[in-house]
Amino acid sequence: MNHLTVGEYWNGNAEAWTKLARAGHDIYRDHLNTPAFLALLPPVTGLRGLDLGCGEGHNTRQVARLGASMTAIDIAEIFIRHAQAEETRAPLGITYRQASAVELPFTNAEFDFAIACMSLMDIPETEQALAEAFRVLRPDGFLQFSILHPCFNPPHRRNCRDEERRTYAIEVGDYFLEAKGRVDEWIFGGTTAAVRDRLPKFRVPRFHRPISQWLNLLVAAGFRLECFAEPCPSDEAVRAHPALQDAQVAAYFLHVRVRKPTA
């Protein structure tokens, strides 16, 4: 399976994903992952940024509101169509293009920074995507990305719950098994039964890599490791959104920032 085939899957997911995410059903994104990602992000006011795998544009818009001049790409045409429609409705100066992160249509050193929110893990040609990100960044530019935490979201994962349905442990397995396109079917946990009955489940190809592979790929691409984070929801956030409770038991996401050396 290559990035073009993966793009077909995501194009098939895009209508339902956009509808559900914009209706507030992506609890982990809205109340944990994106806030933590933005908190980790260095100042970007006045900088030119690139969003790799922007989906319907939610995170692109968040970063644009911080003062960055944003360009965003996604391989899925339907996602780009929804993102462009929102830009027309509420302009933030964002340019959206349908393109693959494996073959970026930009010149060398064109951007001050790049972000990739939960997208690099879905690209089988990770090495090429990182090389392309490195190429289009100016010297001293940074790449910040989020992925499912490789340690706690390997091919086998099960929540162990008590009588009150609270997660007390995460059972993991097959950590060293590289999932190369296994298609998982799921839908946002916050959706109601009525919504689940109306919409198809997402079909998402998985490309699990152990954390050592991620680090070695970043080093091989030429990046300098700079910062890491493992978002954990506060007790207050869990009280407001109980579905987040399992992310207090083990890290659901891994955030990474790397930088292109000046020489």
What does this protein look like?
By secondary structure, this protein is an alpha/beta fold. Strand 1, helix 3 (58-64) and strand 2 form a beta-alpha-beta unit. The longest helix is centred in the first third of the chain and has 20 residues, at 3-22. It is built from eight helices and eleven strands. The strands form three sheets. It has a seven-stranded mixed beta sheet with strand order 3-2-1-4-5-11-10, with helices on both faces. A two-stranded antiparallel sheet has the order 6-7. Helix content is 33%, strand content 27%. It has one domain (3-259): Rossmann fold (3-Layer(aba) Sandwich).
Summarize, please.
With 263 residues, the protein is α/β, with parallel strands linked by helices. The chain has helices at residues 3-22, 27-40, 58-64, 77-89, 126-136, 193-198, 211-221, 235-240, and strands at 48-52, 69-74, 95-98, 111-117, 137-148, 156-161, 167-173, 182-186, 202-206, 224-229, 253-259. The strands form three sheets. A seven-stranded mixed sheet has the order 3-2-1-4-5-11-10, sandwiched between helices. It has a two-stranded antiparallel ribbon with strand order 6-7. Strands 8-9 form a two-stranded antiparallel sheet.
